[in-house]
Amino acid sequence: MTQPEKKTAMTTRTPSKLIRIAWLVIASTTIITIDQMTKYLVVEYIPFLETWLPDNLSRFSDWFRIVHWHNSGAAFGIFQNANLLFLILGIAAVGFILFLYPTIGNHEWALSTAMILQLGGAVGNMIDRIRFGHVIDFISIMRLPVFNIADASIALGVLILLLDVLWAERSEKKSQHSPSPNPPTLSREND
Known about the structure:
Number of domains: 1
Number of helices: 4
Order of helices and strands: HEEHHEH
Number of strands: 3
Strand order of the largest sheet: 1-2-3
């Protein structure tokens, strides 16, 4: 590759990479902001262990409600009393995502989206662990453990990764079993 070709190749890749990193920052910051704003409202207006639901939705209280809850474990209330461990794991996850994200190809939208969701969720819960010594949870659906926006973001990121892996495996198996679009033909040359 000549010098001008190298320069052209570098300049065409750089803006795309910068746009993707900007998208990572903007999207994950949006998730963090929504997560922290909703937690602020819960802490400010709903006493600990109390529930809230607008009067016109009270008939749905068996299925959905807002409850002020503290969680010193992982997402959805598992592994209680491990705040320091999950703070360290959160820092490691954020570092891993920030290191890996710039290396992801433009065509890997599922991985990119999953990492954005997981980064936003991890940082949202890390802020709580540092500020309060626990995570503020408030979304209560039926008999599921109480969770928050950050937990939902992390779970959605994991779900996207799993679906992407399953889709890739399915596509690979399909391509292995399907005949080639242009099967080889026998040709006679110079008969």
